[in-house]
Amino acid sequence: MEISTPRLTLRAFGSADAPALHRAFIESEVHLRPWIRLPDALPSLETLEARLARFQAWFRADERYHFAVVRRACGSFVGSVILCPDRDEMDLSYWLRHDQTGQGFAMEAVGAVGEVALRRPQTRRLNIFCQRHNFRSARVAARLGFVRAAEAGNIVRWELTRPS
Ligand SMILES: CC(C)(COP(=O)(O)OP(=O)(O)OC[C@H]1O[C@@H](n2cnc3c(N)ncnc32)[C@H](O)[C@@H]1OP(=O)(O)O)[C@@H](O)C(=O)NCCC(=O)NCCS
Questions:
Q1: Which of 8, 21, 120, 163 has the fewest CB atoms found within 10 Å of its own CB?
Q2: Residue 19 domain-assigned (yes or no)
Q3: 137 within domain boundaries
Q4: In which domain, by residue range, is 37 found?
Q5: Tens of pLDDT along 8-67?
């Protein structure tokens, strides 16, 4: 499954993306670490290659979709959107390289994946789980029409239900 938007291509990660992902983690660590789960020591290139092979296998098996988000025009790496099916729900998560923020890429990418996810007949609801103080992520969710549905501790669940 490949998704095109006006400025972006979203496609399955391949092992060849490992260097771009490795660079993104190193260069964006300070921006990402407060909000996404990263190990204390960032993964090595070899570890990432193995992980991307796993992501690819999950993608092919329709278990979970780790999309690489790249610029349509030049193929440069922008970030990632992850879609996890869970019965009749699907959970969305996402991140951008620090230097790709503030341009609407998250909205464009997450919105496009959300649309595809809602076309799956069994999908009743999309969720975004977001830390309470992650205002930038909350803004992406709200602008895409997600509503704050529940809170547990530090985590807020945003949801978008299938239009009837
Ligand atoms: C969450 C995250 C993806 C949001 O990134 P973002 O750049 O704020 O979101 P978008 O890419 O949708 O960009 C929106 C901004 O671009 C601006 N923008 C500029 N050009 C734009 C365009 N052509 N179209 C739309 N928006 C545009 C918007 O005005 C908006 O800025 P504002 O919020 O200050 O008004 C990013 O902050 C991130 O990677 N955070 C770390 C990881 C993380 O928190 N992930 C979520 C875990 S729940």
A1: 163
A2: yes
A3: no
A4: 3-124
A5: 999 999 999 999 999 999 999 999 999 999 999 999 999 999 999 999 999 999 999 999
Compute the distance from residue 143 Cα to the ligand 1 centre, in Å: 10
- C-alpha angle with apex 18: 17 to 24, nearest 5 degrees? 95
Looking up residue 30, the CATH number of its domain turns out to be 3.40.630.30
Residues with CB under 6 A from ligand 1: 31-32, 35-36, 93-96, 101-107, 130, 134, 136-137, 139-140
| pTM > 0.85: yes or no | yes
By the 8 A CB rule, do 104 and 71 touch? no
Query: Which pLDDT score is estimated for 9?
Result: 98
Q: Which atom of ligand 1 is nearest to the CA of 97?
A: 39
> What percentage of the chain reaches a pLDDT higher than 90?
95
Q: Among 122, 118, 116, 114, which Cα is nearest to 92's?
A: 114
Name the domain count of the chain. 1
How far is ligand 1, taken at its centre, from the CA of residue 91, in Å?
Answer: 19
